[in-house]
Amino acid sequence: MSETKAQTGWRANKWVRAAIPALLLHCSIGTVYCWSIFSQEIADHIGFEKSSVEWAFSFAIFFLGMSAAFLGNVVEKDIHKSSLIATICFAVGMALTGYFIYYGGEHRGSNLALIGIYISYGFIMGVGLGTGYLSPVKTLMLWFSDKKGLATGLAVAGFGAAKAIASPIMQKMVKMDGGIYKMFWILAGVYFVMMFVGHLLLAKPAGWVEPQDKSAKPGIMETLRTKPITNYIGIWFMFYINITCGLALISQEKMIVKCVGLAASAGLISTISAIFNAGGRLGFSAWADKMKDRNTIYKMIFVISIALTGLTMVTGGIKNGDGNTGLIILVLALIFMVNAGYGGGFSNVPTLLSDHYGMGSISAIHGITLSAWAFAGLTGNQVATYIVNHTGEFVDHDGVLVNPTGYQNVLYFTIALYIIALLLCLFLVRPSGKAAEKKA
Q: Core-most of 26, 258, 275, 419, by most CB within 10 Å?
């Protein structure tokens, strides 16, 4: 029996087969950025210092990037297999994290509990994050071939918006009776359902046929060599720097807000910064669709970040902001725009790569590029924490220990990297897209 027009339309609908599944997948895995909401509670529950527990998040980001790098070819060949791997790993990792938190509560100070959290939240969930992040991206660019930036921005915005959506829910769940581990068990079930529905819906356009002859499809290195290798090195490093600087500031955001006298509004500011993060992912990528060269977006991100970071350094905005409305506005502008640029860097990298190297092996190339995220996850927040702990001094500020000088010194680290990233944009990354066509 032939399909009805309604059934055919459903199967060919780019929103049902690409956009909605992408949002279901990314709104689930994006909750990894809610870690700061419950990390202290986990440390208290299992009897460890927060600094020891924090490595679970760093491992999650590291294995996100590395699994994307090594499983990019799996995503390229079979998005259904990769999205199913993502669903199972993310949900199982979250459930096991809950179990080891429970075990740690029963056996406080147990190394087994801490290592179990590292493996569950860091490695198993990290693999789910990497494959889940990659799975919808190429599919979206195929369905929205005329507006690739908007499409990838929509999905990656879901990753950024996940924190804003889930944060208030998690804050309430953390306080519920029975312990924090129950939150992980409940969310594991919820996210499994969301991601499994996304997995079932996700499909490439009916007219798209992957090359069957492997010899007809160039390898990754062969594709990268179609342009000077310094071009790709420039893209990788400017992506790495943007994430490193973003994580360095975002990891200290809560304490910076308290330094400038906004402790009572810290939760609201965190939500607004998450909205800027998501808005940057969608807005910058959609804007890039109208530009001759997508690399212009990165130049804008770095120039804005350098300007606001420099102004905050010169004025001592973090140290002197308490009670000074102008400096408070400047510090908030820095936080919000770094969040927006951090998100915009993520959403633009797959489309920038496709403009440079085509769609043939984009999932694999994008996956290798996400290895930058892996190394940034180990350096960004860790370097910022080191600077804060080894420079300046902690003082009591309305009952909270803060280090205004230390947070201010983090800006010297980020502005130096932002300047390097801008130079890479200007001198290593070649024009792409319409700009390259015009030049040719």
A: 26
